Amino acid sequence: MEEEEQQQEQERHRCEKIIAILDKAIKDGPWDKTIFLKASGKNLRELRAGLHAYMEALKGPETAESNAATGTQTRYLTVYISL
């Protein structure tokens, strides 16, 4: 069990490093200059969001346990927007 926790911690650490690199690239890049760069910037932002969601999923069981211990629950609200 301890080995699995170490692997998850290493995975989280790698995710944090990659997210930091993506944040810098997104911030510093000229993503509004051409259509190609706009699409590339969008892909980088989507990749970052997906990686962040993955990292949060790795934290999932710990968060659920701590919420159960404190008596708090996560609530979701579905919002529909008409255009």
From TrEMBL:
Pfam families: Dot_icm_IcmQ. This is Uncharacterized protein. It comes from marine sediment metagenome. The lineage of its organism: unclassified sequences, metagenomes, ecological metagenomes.
